[in-house]
C-alpha cells in the first residue's frame, strides 16, 4: 500500500514536471514569435510549432494570446521588480542603490531576452494599449514607486541635492530606455557601452565630478 502511494506521488510529480517544462517551452516560443512578428503578427499556431506542442496545449495554460504575453511579463520581469522593492526596504546610500540598479539592468535585462519584452511594449504599446496598461501596472508603476521612495529618503538625508529627482524618478531609468532603443536600431553601426553610460549617468545625477 505504501509503495502504491509512493508510486502515485512520483507519477503526479512527473506529470507536474512535464507540465512545467511545456509551459516554459511555450513561453520561450512565444517570446521568439512576438519578437519576430510583433504582437499582432504572432499566431498561436506558430507558437505551438516552435514549442513542439499541440495548439490545444497552449489553451491548457493560457486563455489567449494576451494572457500569454502577460505571463511573459510576470515571469521575466516580475522577480526583478520585486528585487527593486526589496531594495526600498533597505537603508542603503542612494549611490549604492543606483549602482545596484544599473548593474541589475545591464546584467539581467539588457544582457538577456528580457530586453526583447521591454522592446515589444515600446513598439507595440500604442497599437495595443491594454498591453501597455498591463506593463505599466505590473512593472513601471511598481518600479517608479520604489525608486521615488528611495530618492525622497536620499533627499531628506542630503545625498541628493535636487528634489526634482524625486518628482521625476523616470530620469533614473532613462538611459535604460535609450540602451534598448539603441540596441534595436543603431548598435550594429556604433556599439554602446551601456554599463559605462549608466555609471556616467549616476555621476551626473549625483553631481560627482572627475
What is shown here, in short?
With 210 residues, the protein is an all-alpha fold. It has helices at residues 2-41, 44-51, 55-61, 65-89, 94-110, 114-124, 129-156, 164-167, 170-185, 194-205. It starts with a helix and ends in a 5-residue tail after the last helix.
Task: Characterise the protein shown here.
This protein is mostly helical and 210 residues long. The protein folds into two domains: 1-62, Orthogonal Bundle (Arc Repressor Mutant, subunit A), CATH 1.10.10.60; 65-210. It is built from ten helices and no strands. Helix 1 (2-41) packs across helix 4 (65-89) and helix 4 (65-89) packs antiparallel against helix 5. The mean pLDDT is 90.
What string gives the helices and strands in order? Answer: HHHHHHHHHH
- Please report the total strand number as a whole number: 0
Measured as a percent range, the helix fraction is over 70%
Whole-number radius of gyration?
21 Å
Figure out the total of helices: 10
What percentage of the residues does DSSP assign to strands (E)? under 5%
The 3D shape can be described as elongated
Structural class by secondary-structure content: mainly alpha
Q: Give the CA-CA distance, first to last residue.
A: 74 Å
Low-confidence runs: none
Number of domains as seen in the coordinates: 2
Largest sheet: none
Nearest-integer average pLDDT:
90
Secondary-structure topology with pairs:
Elements (H helix, E strand, L loop, with lengths): L1 H40 L2 H8 L3 H7 L3 H25 L4 H17 L3 H11 L4 H28 L7 H4 L2 H16 L8 H12 L5
Helix pairs in contact: 1-2, 1-4, 1-6, 4-5, 4-7, 5-9, 5-10, 9-10
Amino acid at each position: 500500500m505504501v509503495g502504491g502511494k509512493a508510486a502515485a506521488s512520483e507519477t503526479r510529480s512527473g506529470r507536474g514536471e512535464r507540465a512545467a517544462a511545456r509551459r516554459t517551452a511555450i513561453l520561450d516560443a512565444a517570446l521568439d514569435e512576438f519578437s519576430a512578428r510583433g504582437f499582432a503578427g504572432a499566431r498561436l499556431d506558430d507558437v505551438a510549432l516552435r514549442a513542439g506542442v499541440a495548439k490545444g496545449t497552449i489553451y491548457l495554460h493560457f486563455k489567449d494570446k494576451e494572457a500569454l504575453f502577460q505571463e511573459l511579463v510576470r515571469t521575466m520581469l516580475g522577480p526583478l521588480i520585486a528585487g527593486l522593492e526589496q531594495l526600498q526596504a533597505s537603508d542603503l546610500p542612494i549611490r549604492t542603490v543606483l549602482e545596484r540598479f544599473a548593474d541589475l539592468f545591464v546584467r539581467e535585462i539588457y544582457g538577456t531576452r528580457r530586453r526583447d519584452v521591454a522592446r515589444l511594449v515600446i513598439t507595440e504599446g500604442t497599437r495595443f494599449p491594454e498591453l501597455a496598461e498591463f506593463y505599466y501596472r505590473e512593472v513601471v508603476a511598481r518600479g517608479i514607486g520604489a525608486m521615488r521612495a528611495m530618492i525622497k529618503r536620499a533627499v531628506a538625508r542630503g545625498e541628493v541635492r535636487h528634489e526634482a529627482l524625486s518628482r521625476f524618478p523616470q530620469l533614473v531609468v532613462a538611459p535604460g530606455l535609450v540602451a534598448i532603443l539603441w540596441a534595436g536600431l543603431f548598435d550594429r553601426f556604433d556599439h554602446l557601452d551601456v554599463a559605462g553610460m549608466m555609471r556616467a549617468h549616476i555621476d551626473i545625477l549625483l553631481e560627482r565630478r572627475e
